[in-house]
Write a structure and sequence with these properties.
The chain is of the alpha/beta class. It has seven helices and 17 strands. It folds into three domains: about 90 residues, Elongation Factor Tu (Ef-tu), domain 3; about 130 residues, Rossmann fold, CATH 3.40.50.80; about 45 residues, Ribbon (Dihydroorotate dehydrogenase B (pyrk subunit), domain 3).
């Protein structure tokens, strides 16, 4: 994947009437939506998202992180949860229908080849960008991705025992994501709900087990990438600071226009010139964790 952020999003946003190819439901009011959107699929990068019209009767669109994109086949895939009027309306859409969408939007994750041990951490609906990033990283043998996922509802897949040994993992922590296993990407799952094979605790605690088992030289090759709810990201940023690791986070915020016009999704970011208000939609959603004001 590219290690340079695109200098601008001008001429990179596309409006498409995307045909629904599949729309599957999972426990915990979770859904996986795949749509035919060739313009978005050709340009999407890990960390970018799309703004979907959930129903023609609803004025406001909903931003959804891209979980997978196939430029050759022309489709993009999303994981989302039914949490409000918009996403509930989206759950009623069926294969063969068309959804108007804008995308891809947002600044993506930026990798550093000097740090090939990539620790990817996804919590809840923050899982999709980590799957997308893992998909891109696995295509180059230089990278050594490890994916940790946390959820307090059943995972939107059937976990299976991982065939990969990971340093520091407690013996009973064996559950992984089948898709990542098929990609030869090691993964482990965490939850406070007692799911079989999962780590009983927070994802950041599971990451600490892994980091502590690495040598100093190995830790010097680690970079951290994360997406999830604010408390998880704040804890991840603190963990990265403790181990002196570079960390990028994809922030989640309510959005209206999602293209930088309304400035309704601003967050405080520390810059060399002082604190600045940055728009999550187009200045992010990916930011350096050290720059985010977590207070």
């Amino acid at each position: 994947m590219s290690e340079q952020r695109p200098p601008s999003q001008r001429d990179t946003l596309f409006v498409e009437d995307a045909e629904i190819l599949l729309h599957d439901s999972y426990p915990g009011d979770q859904y996986v939506l795949r749509v035919q959107a060739p313009e978005c699929a050709a340009r999407a990068l890990p960390g970018s998202f799309a703004h979907l019209q959930c129903n023609p009767s609803l004025l406001m669109r909903r931003p959804l992180s891209i979980m997978r994109a196939d430029a050759t086949a022309g489709w993009v895939e999303f994981l989302y949860k039914d949490v409000g009027i918009g996403t509930h309306a989206l759950t009623k859409r069926v294969s063969g229908e068309y959804i108007n969408m804008i995308g891809p939007i947002g600044m993506p994750f930026v990798t550093d080849r000097a740090r090939p041990r990539t620790l990817l951490m996804g919590g809840g609906v923050g899982i999709p960008p980590m799957v997308f990033l893992a998909d891109r990283l696995r295509q180059d043998p230089h990278w050594q991705p490890v994916v940790l996922m946390g959820s307090e509802v059943p995972f939107p897949f059937t976990p299976r025992p991982s065939r990969f040994l990971l340093p520091g993992m407690p013996d009973a922590v064996i559950a992984g994501m089948p898709l990542l296993e098929d990609w030869d990407v090691p993964s482990r799952l965490a939850s406070l709900q007692g799911f079989a094979g999962c780590y009983e605790g927070y994802i950041t605690d599971l990451a600490r087990h892994w980091l502590d088992a690495l040598s100093a030289e190995q830790r010097n090759a680690v970079s951290v990438y994360a997406c999830g709810p604010h408390p998880m990201l704040a804890a991840t940023a603190a963990l990265a600071r403790e181990y002196d690791l570079p960390c990028q986070v994809s922030l989640e915020e309510f959005m209206a226009c999602a293209v930088g016009g309304c400035a309704g999704c601003t967050v405080e970011i520390n810059t060399p010139a002082g604190v600045a208000m940055k728009r999550v939609c187009v200045d992010g959603p990916v930011f350096d964790a050290r720059a985010v004001n977590w207070d």
